[in-house]
Write a structure and sequence with these properties.
Largest sheet of chain B: 6 strands, parallel
Strand content of chain B: 5-15%
Strand order of the largest sheet of chain B: 1-7-8-4-3-2
Number of domains of chain B: 1
CATH class of the largest domain in chain A: Alpha Beta
Number of helices of chain B: 12
Distance between the termini of chain A: 55 Å
Number of helices of chain A: 11
Distance between the termini of chain B: 59 Å
CATH architecture of the largest domain in chain A: 3-Layer(aba) Sandwich
Shape of chain A: globular
CATH topology of the largest domain in chain A: Rossmann fold
Number of strands of chain A: 14
CATH superfamily of the largest domain in chain A: Thiamin diphosphate (ThDP)-binding fold, Pyr/PP domains
Helix content of chain B: 40-55%
Oligomer: heterodimer
CATH class of chain B: Alpha Beta
Shape of chain B: globular
Order of helices and strands of chain A: EHEHEHEHEHEHEEEEHEEHEHEHH
Structural class of chain B: alpha/beta
Helix content of chain A: 25-40%
Chain lengths: 328, 346
Amino acid sequence: MAVMTYLEAGRRAVIEEMQRDTSVWALGEDLGRGGVFGQYKGLQEIFGADRIADTPISEACIMGAAVGAAMTGTRPIVEMRFSDFALCAVDELVNQAAKARFMFGGQMRVPMVVREPVGMWRSSAAQHSQSLESWYTHIPGLVVVAPATPADNLGLLKSAIRNDDPVVYLEHKNLWPLEGEVPEQEHLVPLGKADLAHAGGDVTMVTWSGMRHGCLRVAEQLAAEGIGVEVIDLRTLWPWDRDTVFASVERTGRLLVVHEAVAVSGFGAEIAASVAEALHHRLKAPVRRLGAPRIPIAYAPPMEDQARVSDDSIAAAVRGMLEPAAVS
Amino acid sequence: MISGRGKTNVQDDIAEGRHHNLDRDRFLGRLALMHRIRAFEEEAIAAQKDGLVLGAIHPSIGQEAVAAGVCANLEPADLMLSTHRGHGHTLAKGADPLAMMRELFGRAGGTCGGKGGSMHIADFGVGMLGANGVVGANIPIAAGAAHAQKLQGSRQITVCIFGDGAVNRGPFLEGLNWARVFDLPVLFVCEDNGFSATTRTREMTGGEGAAARAESLGLEAQEVDGNDVVAVDAAARAAIDAIRAGQGPRFLTCHTYRMTGHTAVDPATYRPAQEVDEWRGNCPIARLEVALRLAGESDARLSALQAQESGAMAAIAQAARDTGWPEATDAFTDVQDIGDPRERAF
């Protein structure tokens, strides 16, 4: 095991896959200078300007060109800089990349990975802070991945690059400096498999991306009080690992979904509804969701914090689910 | 400099003696292809009236010289991207007309297995990377295909055909700029029929139009009479030769006219009959026939060529009618490998 950051792990994944497969290349703004966060630092020196391609500020064309290049025998990694900017390329992702294989009758595939850094970090306001994963889980044809640890960023990004369909790959900006142990040998994490991050018997907590860490803090805190919280980090949102989630809820009888995105129409709604439909008879308490209120994310910290799911609110939700039902 | 000329007519062809030195075999082939395209679309329009073509179709009747003139200069391994008005381009690139007709009818054995219909015909086997239902969306995709060709060190090129309406979308700017910045082997062809759906493009377009915009982005641009297949062929050949020689992207505007409405059911009452009649007299097929006659081809041979293509297409339409539907469960295939909808009942 080696200790490396979430950012370095993603960089290592790109290096390993570009060395393994010469059809892999990356394109995006500023990549020759390492990209906006340094995820591509030094890669142009290793692979040259053709395979680590600097592009114009043309999100639609970055995405669209990747679609054409993926149809023509290459495996592009698209860097969108901020997930918010990917909205300039929605047609290219949703109408073109996601649909082409089906629409053209399976004549070809569109093997591309779209890296979209997501989430709140520090005072980045309404156009540089969003978590829009549920936009993509809604679209047939897309795989959606949201890693939360350095090891998962290495193993999932490598798997995403090897996947033959378009993958929306959501890295959390606040996790870039997070350190963790990462295997030194080849490390692949299968897409579609959740990580049971903390075992517990009372409440199943389903989460992903940045919120994994808040959920784990709360699980540790509640364990000291004798409350068993099972934390499941989905890692891949489409397809999500129903088997692991359902098996856990079968044991605990309680489900809390925690995500950073706006709760309304968030992906937590899909999980909550699926569990309610399939396991209603096993539930000891109503399913709960925690997410952001339906407000744009503000700049000033006191207002920005209103959009955050706090450890306290997670702990309060768990405790509430364990209280005896009120008699109506 | 933007070079070339605008609209001409058959009298200009004769006055200039353009039939002299005409490569008769080459243009008999182009004539047969234009008849094939015309016959395909006439059969499709008739079939739509019979309820056999299920969705919208956008005929290119009157614009056949663009497809025939450009694609004559492509190699089988070259790539092409087209638009919602793409039957002609697709046939010219070599797609099977029976598979295409089945696709329009939504039948088994269609080019896309009945999943796409007219607006999403693609035949990757002949380098046809797709019609597209979104105006201008094929431009960045074409830039990307050409980008891959360059990365692979291929000698092949990509041709991207779009309409004049596309020049007012952002991807036009982004895609042309991209092709110039990366010096890509791509020919952009603006098939200018004057209309953005039912609106005159010139009333919605600032500046001097498509070729001037291309030139402002550093692409060498040429304008030709898109109803003169000899002129389109020559201009496309020069551009494609230059691209294949590594000289980077080129731009070609072909001025033409759509003889039908936007869709086959659009009566196009927004344009005067006199204008339509004038263009009908400038039919690209009739013009090439005049040139070939002056060059010594017999009426009998030219008539036989048309009869052969229309007869073959009638048989194709009948064969498409006689084909069954695809399996309903095909709706669940080719979505994606991981998260395949067949794995779960939803």
